[in-house]
């Protein structure tokens, strides 16, 4: 006699399979950044399925297997790696980390031509298997790569954007935390513009709790939190990547955590404000360029671009940076 479905078990609990489709994140590039990002996604449990894709079959399979062996200790369900783009089929989020590697002494903009050529090769295949995914560009120079990838793909600026200055903003808040002795989570300050040498800390709108940073007074060491200190912190934020690359050849841990934060904001529809790199259209007079501004991020991707209070000096610096980024894109034929 076959077993019947118990009549006293609530329908919502039986059978165990859910109607909703598990979430899937596809990461393109199994280098230090891509592999660290995959690890961060698994540790945080941002998706039920994480896949890595790279042209180096041996490397990508090994990286995925190494992470998969620890699945027992994480919230994730599966990790896989392949050199076949088919592994990315029906992904909810596609993150592209593949690109030219930044060497000591190079600026991010020095990588533009090589990385854009890579995008021209890989985007058509990805769009064929994951046309409805939200695309996050991480490869540097991320602002130029995001702009050119939008042109190559034909996707909307909502569906495709760059990781921008989410990491730079985290670095800024970390340094302000060290100076003031307050928790990073209570510091609300942003870095906007290029993810690179022309980036602009938005000091005019920076607050700790609800107190403007301009009214903070002295730091833990007894020096005033003034324009000189702001300039020093801004310079240290901008130089951070160069210092890390000089010391160990690559930045990977913090960027992995930062991008996993963006992915979570998308998949969980958090409507979180993040400084991602998006195509601007009349933002403080800036148009036709991708650069970072505080943006609401949710399940549909990049939403409303916010207009924080900025000083005239900050506005001028952002405008100058936008012109430079636009010129780089034009030089590449975009």
TrEMBL record:
Q: Which NCBIfam families match?
A: L-LDH-NAD
Q: Does the keyword Mitochondrion apply?
A: no
Give the source lineage, highest ranks first. Bacteria, Bacillati, Actinomycetota, Actinomycetes, Propionibacteriales
Q: In which pathway does it act?
A: Fermentation; pyruvate fermentation to lactate; (S)-lactate from pyruvate: step 1/1
Q: What's the EC number here?
A: 1.1.1.27
Q: Which reaction does it catalyse?
A: (S)-lactate + NAD(+) = pyruvate + NADH + H(+)
The protein's name is L-lactate dehydrogenase
Query: What organism, scientifically named, is this protein from?
Result: Brooklawnia propionicigenes
Family statement drawn from the similarity comment of this UniProt entry: Belongs to the LDH/MDH superfamily. LDH family.
Give a Gene Ontology cellular component term annotated to this protein: cytoplasm
Name any Gene Ontology BP term: glycolytic process
**Whom does it interact with, and what assembly results?**
Homotetramer.
């Amino acid at each position: 006699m076959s077993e019947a479905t118990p009549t006293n078990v609530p329908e919502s609990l039986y059978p165990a399979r859910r109607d909703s489709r598990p979430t899937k994140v596809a990461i393109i590039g199994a280098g230090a950044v891509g592999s660290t990002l995959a690890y961060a996604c698994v540790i945080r449990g941002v998706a039920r399925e994480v896949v890595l894709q790279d042209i180096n079959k041996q490397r990508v399979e090994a990286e995925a297997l190494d992470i998969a062996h620890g699945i027992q200790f994480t919230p994730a369900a599966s990790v896989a790696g392949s050199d076949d783009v088919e592994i990315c089929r029906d992904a909810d989020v596609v993150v592209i980390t593949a690109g030219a590697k930044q060497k000591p002494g190079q600026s991010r903009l020095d990588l533009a031509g090589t990385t854009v050529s890579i995008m021209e090769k890989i985007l058509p295949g990805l769009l064929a298997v994951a046309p409805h995914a939200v695309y996050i560009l991480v490869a540097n120079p991320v602002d130029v790569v995001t702009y050119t990838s939008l042109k190559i793909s034909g996707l909307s600026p909502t569906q495709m954007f760059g990781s921008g200055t989410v990491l730079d903003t985290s670095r800024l808040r970390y340094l302000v935390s060290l100076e003031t002795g307050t928790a990073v989570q209570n510091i609300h300050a942003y870095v906007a513009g290029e993810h690179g040498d022309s980036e602009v800390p938005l000091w005019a709108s920076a607050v700790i709790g609800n107190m403007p940073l301009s009214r903070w007074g002295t730091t833990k060491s007894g020096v005033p939190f003034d324009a000189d200190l702001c300039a020093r912190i801004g310079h240290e934020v901008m130089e951070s990547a160069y210092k890390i690359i000089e010391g160990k050849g690559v930045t990977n841990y913090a960027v992995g955590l930062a991008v996993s934060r963006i992915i979570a904001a998308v998949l969980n529809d958090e409507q979180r404000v993040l400084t991602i790199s998006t195509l601007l259209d009349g933002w403080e007079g800036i148009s036709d360029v991708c650069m970072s501004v505080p943006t609401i991020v949710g399940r549909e991707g990049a939403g409303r671009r916010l207009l924080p209070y900025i000083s005239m000096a900050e506005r001028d610096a952002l405008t100058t940076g936008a012109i430079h980024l636009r010129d780089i894109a034009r030089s590449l034929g975009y």
